[in-house]
Amino acid sequence: MTEAKPQISMRKMQWMIFLLGLVKIPLIGFVRPRLIELSDEKVAVKIKFRRRTKNHLNSMYFGALAVGADVAGGIHAFYFAEKMNKKVSFAFKSMDAEFLKRAESDVIFECNEGAKIESIIAESFEKQIRINQLVRVDAKNLSNEIVATFDMVISVKVK
């Protein structure tokens, strides 16, 4: 008989993002990303376009876009670690970003790689090694146009 996986609430995950920004990564706290969708398959994070996230050209600053991609790509690792009741160490090893259009409104960062991230966490636990995998994050403006894409290599080790 298989054990049922616990459900993780969006509120709990948003609280984890807040604490991460408060205690460990202050830039996340400064930008204040908001979790707007979370499932086994997809994560969506919103960063508001405001004074602290825009640049001198009145578009979203590169650093704010990188924070959004980081949170959207990494929150699944926290999510599945919590679901599997495991401790996970993860980091991004590299990032390839392509900026297609100026982001002149709030930006939604979407990562649809949940199944891939869940499988690398399971593989890392099974083999007790660090696993590296490419994940993709799309950044969209409020008109649902892709303004940037991020291909990031996530490195995961289950402790």
What does this structure look like?
This protein has 159 residues and is α+β, with helices and mostly antiparallel strands. It has a single domain (10-158), classed as Hotdog Thioesterase (Thiol Ester Dehydrase, Chain A, Roll). The chain is built from four helices and six strands; from the N terminus they run ααββαββαββ. It has helices at 10-24, 26-31, 62-84, 114-127; strands at residues 34-38, 43-47, 88-99, 107-111, 131-140, 146-158. Strands 1-2-4-5-6-3 form a six-stranded antiparallel beta sheet. The mean pLDDT is 92.
Give unreliable regions as ranges.
none
Backbone CA Rg: 16 Å
- Which structural category do the helix and sheet elements fall into? alpha+beta
CATH topology: Thiol Ester Dehydrase, Chain A
Strand order of the largest sheet: 1-2-4-5-6-3
Question: Outline, from the CA principal axes?
Answer: globular
Q: Give the N-to-C terminal Cα separation.
A: 25 Å
Number of strands: 6
CATH class: Alpha Beta
Q: Tell me the major beta sheet.
A: 6 strands, antiparallel
Task: Looking at this protein, list some descriptive labels.
Thiol Ester Dehydrase, Chain A; single chain; six-stranded antiparallel beta sheet; globular; 159 residues; alpha+beta; 4 helices
